[in-house]
Amino acid sequence: MAEDLSPLSQNLASRYVRQASLPDIGDCGQAKLIKSSVLIVGAGGLGVPSALYLAGAGIGKIGIIDHDCIELTNLHRQVIYTESDIGKPKSSALAKHLRKLNSNIDVVSYEERLLSKNAAALVEEYDLVIDAADNFLVTYLLSDLCLAKGKSLISASVIGSKGYIGVFCHQAPSYRALFPNVPEQAQSCSEAGVLGPIVGVLGNMQAQEAIKLILDSPMALKGKLLTIDLWQNRQSQINFSEAPEPEHYQPIELIDESAITDDDLLIDVRNEIESQSSPVKGALNIPLPQISENGHNSLLKGNRRRVFFCVSGRRAAQAALSMRSEINDRIAVLYRS
Amino acid sequence: MIKVLFFAQLREVLNCSNLTIESTPETLGDLRQLLCEKGDTWDEWLGSDKALAAVNQTMADDDVKLNDGNDVAFFPPVTGG
């Protein structure tokens, strides 16, 4: 025991005694948690509980990336934020709370979007990644990077009272092995609604999986998808550990407005009403059905980069993928609110 | 006989959480085809690149042979939180 405790001061040993006394953790496991680092992508309904419990558990370094500010519509499920926080950036508000909760750990907040240009360096810097974002393009970007770098990706998602959690990439297939390309049909919680407690449950489960992965527990959900319906109290698991990686897939470059130049052709693929309610400066409005149905001969002329936009990125990705099969390069998706 | 279960948003869009197919189709792909023929919404959500399928809790591709008594689950891509 005394040898195992050596990396921990008496102060830290007593702080974590209630978890370190568990046979699956021990002082050795606690020392591992203290030396580990976790990147949490998204400081919303999943990211908040995940971050809180990982900070409580003593994870040595926690990075939080989120570009959003706190809104009134977030408070029913992102319950750490208060009414007086409305308008403040989520990542720094959450980071501030974590530092107060545990001054022994290093908390880094990134008030920015996860984009193709910054994602690789961030993933590189941390031991494992929690996908607590609500965007397919982010999930694919993280999955591709985690697969390439051999890091575990703990992904979760919730709509209504139903959700899933799964562990991808390191010693497990990637998200693309389940869904090779950005889906045509999908709902997101901003479109379909979401209840608070189920998001809290899945965010907490992401923290628990992170702890198991750091401790190299065979009980981690590697290559497994756990689905939960808290309204009907149902659970089910799908084992995808043998799923083959797709031979061909098409990564999409995610960029923000700062990367757009005058040479780019910016195409807003939302419908006319959406486009008029929050216009994108300099963008041509061609709704996705028109791109899919009518072909895109006018867009093929010249060799300008085509940058597609819609709010969630899903329709933009569909447009980008349908274009790419014809022009092979110079395609990107703009990620902004 | 095959028991088919639908997960996540499939339950709402198909308005169905599970059903039983009395005569066992030969492969998972045949089952998909059978389900897709139930209507446009089924066809839109259950195509092989649109929802993953698991036979007895293990992810399976369309070539997998089905046996009497198998449970088949369909799970769509979802994002949110």
Topology:
The complex is a heterodimer of chains A (337) and B (81).
Chain A lengths: L1 H4 L4 H6 L1 H4 L5 H10 L1 E5 L5 H11 L3 E5 L24 H12 L4 E5 L5 H10 L2 E4 L4 H14 L3 E7 L2 E7 L6 H4 L10 H4 L3 H19 L9 E6 L4 E6 L13 E3 L9 E4 L3 H6 L6 E2 L2 H7 L2 H4 L5 E4 L4 H14 L3 E4 L3
Parallel strand pairs in A: 1-2, 1-4, 2-3, 4-5, 9-13, 10-11, 10-12, 12-13
Antiparallel strand pairs in A: 5-6, 6-7, 7-8
Helix pairs in contact in A: 5-6, 5-11, 7-8
Chain B lengths: L1 E5 L3 H5 L3 E4 L6 H9 L3 H7 L5 E4 L2 E3 L10 E5 L6
Parallel strand pairs in B: 1-5
Antiparallel strand pairs in B: 1-2, 3-4, 3-5
Helix pairs in contact in B: 2-3
Q: Would you kindly provide a written description of the structure presented here, covering whatever features stand out?
A:
The complex is a heterodimer of chains A (337) and B (81). In chain A, strands 3-2-1-4-5-6-7-8 form an eight-stranded mixed beta sheet, sandwiched between helices. A five-stranded parallel beta sheet of chain A has the order 9-13-12-10-11, covered by helices on one side. Chain A is 38% helix and 18% strand. Chain A is globular and about 70 Å long. Chain A is α/β, with parallel strands linked by helices and 337 residues long. Chain B is α+β, with helices and mostly antiparallel strands and 81 residues long. Chain B has one domain: Beta-grasp domain (Ubiquitin-like (UB roll), Roll). Chain B has three helices and five strands, in the order βαβααβββ. The chains are: A alpha/beta (337), B alpha+beta (81). Chains A and B meet through strand 5, strand 6, helix 10, helix 11 and strand 8 of A and loops of B.
Q: In which order are the strands of the major sheet of chain B placed? A: 2-1-5-3-4
Largest interface summary: A-B, 46 and 23 residues
Strand/helix succession of chain A: HHHHEHEHEHEHEEHHHEEEEHEHHEHE
Q: How many strand segments of chain B?
A: 5
